[in-house]
Amino acid sequence: MTTPPEQLLPATRRALLHRLATTQSEGRAPSVAAAVVRDGEIVWDGSRSASDGQAPGTDTQYRIGSITKTFTAVLILRLRDEGLLDLGDPLEKHVPGTGAGEVTIAQLLAHAGGLAAESPGPWWERTPGSLRPHLADILGEEPFRHPSGRVHHYSNLGYALLGTVVERLRGASWEDVLRREVLEPLALHRTAAQPSAPYAEAWAVHPWADVLLPEPVEDYGLMAPAGQLWSTTADLARFAVFLSRGDDRVLSAESVREMRTPAAPSATRDLASGASYGLGTQVLHIEGRTFVGHGGSVPGFLAALLTSVDDDLTAVVLANCTSGPAVFVAAVDLVRIVAEAEPRPPQPWRPLREVDQGQLELTGPWYWGPSPYALRLAAEGGLVLDSLTAAGRGSPFLAQEDGTWLGLEGYFAGEVLRAVRRPDGSPSHLDIGSFVFTREPYDAGAPVPGGVDPEGWRGLKQ
User: Fold this and answer.
1) Helix (H, G, I), strand (E, B) or coil at 255
2) Residue ranges of region Disordered (predicted)?
3) Which of 123, 246, 407, 452 could be cross-linked to 253 through a Cys-Cys bond (beta carbons 3.0 to 4.6 Å apart)?
4) Range from 206-210, 217-221, 302-306, 375-379 carrying the lowest mean pLDDT
């Protein structure tokens, strides 16, 4: 039996509705819909509409634009996990003859391939995909704008190519593969390439008058993997839970964590704004919080899905207009409102059930040269290295079967920690990627690279 989600306080719910109402009113949106997820469940949803009695519900479809890219990235990671491709593979290995074959799968996922942002010819989001029936039509004669791997340059073309990779390796359409391998297992029954009632109409709002213009809703053809999907606040809420926790029927927790890890070299502007890009997800640092998710924008629709990892809070905001409402800002604010009004209590401290004495004797102070560090035994059985100075480098480490530990984050991510022991079994020093950590600063009894002056520590002569 599932425990029902804890209800938000009335004051919090009113604050969320007020923020959403402000988004709709000031953004002049025909309608907006939103949901907030906590602990894996929707704890609030709301909507506002310009039409009386026609407020959208959690099952009302909106087109979600580039959030589609995250779904496409999931399909690529599934292929990788099955051994059908490697992220380092050049595109040419799986889709030969494109003229962009030097780009790797990883670079396409992270928008680091140097490809153009848009397809040549008429605006692809407002014209039918039948105008671009072949890859050559969407790539054009000069698809590159930057050298591959040098800089993050957002590319819708890259995700069209990734969709083609999926089709070639699965022998089925991108849409069919997505439905079978992601949408159905995750019960995203209202997410699809084509809308079905109830769904929001696509509108543009005049910038200087309160009047509307219908936007065309096209099938994007080969460009579909970059922005075709329709979805709802309820479905995107479930998808966000999957992106946070994983689901072994689709992708493991380790693989979705890889998607959330920055993978592209950021431009100077992105660094200044705290933005980077993972494998199909945007990673943003806003007001002291790290958000992971994606935004979407196509003619007639705006969308945002953002998760604050530390708060375990997600906000989904959808609108049916081409421009106006700042849905990204609204999503950040919805998370902030809940996090500040009803902060999560810390998890109860609990001791380890079993203690490995060999690990326990590694804990305590260590020194990299003269710099102090502390090594802790974590509740999950791993080790955590913390710098005791502001400029130091630290990381959690996960135990490996061979008795070493693998760095998970920060400077030591992917590096191996080895505990080197003396003949009597006592720990002599730690080796982390050739860095030697000793029990005393520059311990002369340990193999410190470069050696230690035999006269030892001394004062400065005047």
Assistant:
1) helix
2) 443-462
3) 246
4) 375-379
Q: 0.85 exceeded by the pTM? A: yes
Its sign, for the CA torsion 87, 88, 89, 91, is positive
- CA angle, 301 as apex, 145 and 215 as ends, to 5°? 95
Q: Is the model's pLDDT at 2 over the cut of 60?
A: no
Mean pLDDT of 196-207: 97
Q: For residue 111, what are the contacts with CB-CB under 8 A and spacing of at least 6?
A: 152, 153, 154, 155, 158, 264, 277
Alpha carbons 202 and 220: distance in angstroms, whole number: 15
* pLDDT tens, position by position, 406-462: 998 888 988 999 999 999 999 999 999 889 999 999 999 899 999 999 989 989 887
Coil/strand/helix, residue 409: coil
Per-domain boundaries in the chain:
27-341, 357-438
**pLDDT higher than threshold 60 for residue 269:** no
Q: What is the reported pLDDT for 1?
A: 36
